[in-house]
């Protein structure tokens, strides 16, 4: 039985800690989630995002901290008492039950009347567009269909919170794109909050209302996809968000904030200061698709490789001082060719630190 | 002349081209050089299992006196002989069922232990000891002058020693002790084969520990338990040392293997002994077939959650 309906206002994680022996998988994670929000927990493997999700589901106990659903403290409850829907990475469908019985399992556990279970299971089958597959066993379904069953099974109990643990990582590329829009559609339809764990920044950007970037058991940044794409708060977040050029630089002028000039790869480049820097050492982050050949570009580089990506070429090259650079070019470039590269100063982000 | 020879040459060429080489055809049926490695095993099975079995079967139809069914007729008309079937089943079935049932909760618990290996080792030690050593130990421990009875009498729980050996109870205790490790290990491997995320998923869907066991673990375990039952039963059914040492081999625990032994080495009637062995095999086979047929009523697929 579920502790609350879908009408909760806020889920709060306060200072969550979890250690496995000597290893601290979660170090003081705090977060607030509102009803109807789609939150992505994003981070490289081992950053603690799955641990956080399992703690939320009650499959792992906390070493410290608390979880609140409005005024109710829930972190001491067993998973079966929380009533959150969870979608597992390997789907975890019950192999000996038909699709219908899989989906109806949660309702059966709640001892709902038979007619109600049958009606809700049909509704859920329709939501995930599996109307015809109800009497099959999970083993007779394709990966994408199994994934839909797993989602239907989690949402049919009308949970206040749906937890998804890398649900698309076992699917092929085409199906992944398809299921991505399915998951967002279902989320909008049922109106509960979703917490979605992924290591794929593209998935997080396209699905989530807010993204929580984690690293080494801590939250590095929380923001909308646009904020994280355009203005990562730290150099490591930038690197994870697709800023493939993360380079050491020296500040040339404008020690304060706003537009400053730095020396990178033996050339002077203008960029936006994001973090305060203690010294004139800095880190510059630029996306490959923001660094492009231009006749008056300040950075000279020798092309080392060029991959054809349809519209553009995705290239790597070396600056005059040996720094490796990644850039995009609309025109074909050849290996060994010398190119001049330029970037829009608003797309060049400057962080503190030395690397 | 040249025409014909040309055509002949072409014809032979074509025919060799069309016919697939035998190596390729065998390979299509998964038979190649490596398949030959199975030969020693096949010879072993033929020499040590199939041949003795057939030899025994034929021998059982060649009694010392009477027609070819005389031994079988004698077995099923003499209660002293046919009662051994009941005496054996009365020991083997409960012992096997108790072992299988007890192994489930133990395996469920052990699965979650960190020091699983240590506990498994401790539980497996009885296998390495062998039934004779266990029987000797139990005679000392459970006998009228054993620790158990003396302790209980010292504490005033009982006034006269409990009769725990040289009867049905003694054999039963020994069968459970020596059979349990084997049954447990098999159950443990079946239980650990069930994907842990299935139970987690059931928990998030509101299933209590009891419901998870009933709806998820047990249905996925039935197949393994049936196989486990068969293997344990066959082992227990051929009980001999403990029935002799701990039981009453002339009375309550006169099991079928004792009857076979007496026919072979006390009456020197190899044909009768073979007959009893054949009947013993047939009873075992019947129980195994029933158990395996019973499991077909349940789900028979993989116990994993994802795509195989």
Q: Which secondary structure elements does this structure contain, and how are they paired or packed?
A:
The complex is a heterodimer of chains A (355) and B (308).
Chain A: E1 10-20, E2 23-34, E3 38-42, H1 49-57, E4 64-69, E5 72-73, H2 79-82, E6 85-87, H3 99-109, H4 114-127, H5 143-155, E7 161-165, H6 173-190, E8 193-198, H7 201-207, E9 210-215, E10 218-223, H8 225-230, H9 235-240, E11 245-253, E12 258-264, E13 267-273, E14 281-286, E15 292-293, E16 299-308, E17 313-319, E18 324-329, E19 338-342, E20 349-352
Parallel strand pairs in A: 3-8, 3-9, 6-7, 7-8, 13-20
Antiparallel strand pairs in A: 1-2, 1-4, 4-5, 9-10, 11-12, 11-14, 12-13, 14-20, 15-19, 16-17, 16-19, 17-18
Chain B: H1 2-18, H2 22-28, H3 39-60, H4 70-77, H5 79-110, H6 116-129, H7 131-142, H8 147-154, H9 168-192, H10 196-204, H11 209-237, H12 241-245, H13 256-265, H14 270-295
Helix pairs in contact in B: 3-14, 5-9, 5-11, 6-9, 7-9, 9-11, 10-11, 11-14, 13-14
Give the structure's gist in a few sentences:
Chain B: Keywords: Cell membrane, Membrane, Transmembrane, Transmembrane helix, Transport. The N and C termini of chain A lie far apart (52 Å).
Keywords:
heterodimer; A: 355 residues; alpha+beta; 6-stranded mixed beta sheet; 5-stranded mixed beta barrel; 9 helices; B: 308 residues; mainly alpha; MetI-like fold; flat; AAA+_ATPase (chain A); ABC_transporter-like_ATP-bd (chain A)
Helix content of chain A: 10-25%
Distance between the ends of chain B: 65 Å
CATH fold topology of the largest domain in chain B = MetI-like fold
Largest sheet of chain B: none
Q: What is the number of independent domains of chain B?
A: 2
Low-confidence spans of chain A: none
| Element order of chain B: H for helix, E for strand | HHHHHHHHHHHHHH
Helix/strand order of chain A, N-terminal first: EEEHEEHEHHHEHEHEEHHEEEEEEEEEE
- Report the helical percentage of chain B: over 70%
Instruction: Give me the CATH superfamily of the largest domain in chain B.
Output: MetI-like
Number of helices of chain B: 14
